[in-house]
Amino acid sequence: MFKHFLQDYLMMLFLAVIVIAIGSDIAADISHGASTTHLLQEATILLIAFLMLCWLILDNFLNRRQIRQLNQDLEEMKIMPTPESEVVLAARHQLRQAITEQFSDWKLTSSEKDVGQMLLKGYSLKEIAGLRGTAEKTIRQQASSIYHKASVPGRHAFSAWFIEDLL
Global pTM? Predict the structure, then answer.
């Protein structure tokens, strides 16, 4: 996650430098009597760079807020009371054990096991990436590896593999 945010901040810094440089250039061009066409061209570039900077700042803010909310939701789920029914508790335990054993049979790595559990819980690839602090592309590759090792075509078949006979 740190790498992703570092890239975003470097891109924002780069765009901010461009905005400042173009703004300074426009001010210098005005004082030297540059043509209106030239000033409009530079103003257009300045506007595009400024809008891209604003978009990156907003996107970064929204992503951080979503990750905070997901972490909060995850913590709330951890402290949720478990059902008191012994039958439900036993079924959950057996399902958890079956999933763990199947993941081992498929020879999933520990990262793939974590991703697989989150996929089964219904998290999106983007949400998993945020929670794990990795790039979404990495999670997509891990999910593809899981599906390949499980010999299933995709996410729905992966989930169905575990619950098909339960229903």
Answer: 0.56
